[in-house]
Fold this protein.
Amino acid sequence: MAYDALVLVSFGGPERPEDVLPFLQNVTRGRGVPPERLAEVAEHYLHFGGVSPINQQCRDLLAAIRADFAANGVDLPVYWGNRNWDPMLADTVARMRDDGVQRALAFVTSAYGGYSSCRQYQEDIAAARATVGPDAPLIEKLRQFWDHPGFVEPHADAVRAALAQLDPAKRDSTRVVFTAHSIPVSAAATAGPHGGRYTAQLAETARLVHAAAAPDLPYDLVWQSRSGPPQVPWLEPDVNDHLADLAEQGVTGVVISPIGFVSDHLEVVWDLDTEALETAKQLGLDFVRAGTPGTDPRFVAMVRELVLERTAPAGERLVRRLGELPIWDTCPALCCVPPARRP
């Protein structure tokens, strides 16, 4: 099947102080997030001048993908649209239509299954096409990539580099801690065609990165950045609570690896580099946060490989992966049941 474009689809973020609250209202609409929680998160953005790092990271990734395509003979224009802020996906789809695009692939900057990390992006694409109208291009999402070498290997190298910054004499009391965005327990239970895929995929990524980077050290998978009403159960433990537990166990140093993220989002630079770092200091823990793939050439090449995987004839597809969990090229219709939302 022929495609004539790729669109990079991401979360979006504010780039001016006055955009912060409207952006957060877009993100949390219908979720019952208390106003005081919005105000608290707004302060995180304002700490960085009201600018989320994600948009510049998407610009950098966009440029890297275009350069990789050009260097490897992939003749596809690459566009960029967001779920929650400019450039909004509907505006991008309209531009694609105006440019004559008829059938495109979408690369979403989220590696895992789940409602907000996968299905909601499918819904975003459908809504953008509906806004543009019947002449909008068809857009098909590329598969999840939690165990692709181009995602796992940069994370593993980052863990090795982070460990090298800690005192080797204390290696026996060092722990590797993998983190990902917490989600409601109910959403985790319905992630994937049979439920539980978000946590299972993250556990698989953690296993793969650990095996490649630090098989001699113990590791944990914990959660960060929870939001939503306090009475709703979310995945636990929180990374800050876990650091306190590790200190009580006699751990002296931690490497935090944010495998839930493809680049240094605000959740990384605030929740880990600011809050978790402060927690570690108070506990007397040595703390190094490992990097994310960003524009690592292997990660950029992965995007091209996913495109070629989809476009190759069925009998000639090269599917590069390291894990053992089932994968699927397109999501089943009843995958990742959406949560009930307030108006």
In short: Strands lie at 5-10, 78-82, 103-108, 138-141, 174-181, 219-224, 253-257, 286-289. The CA atoms of residues 204 and 330 lie 20 Å apart. The chain has two domains: 5-145+296-316, 149-289.
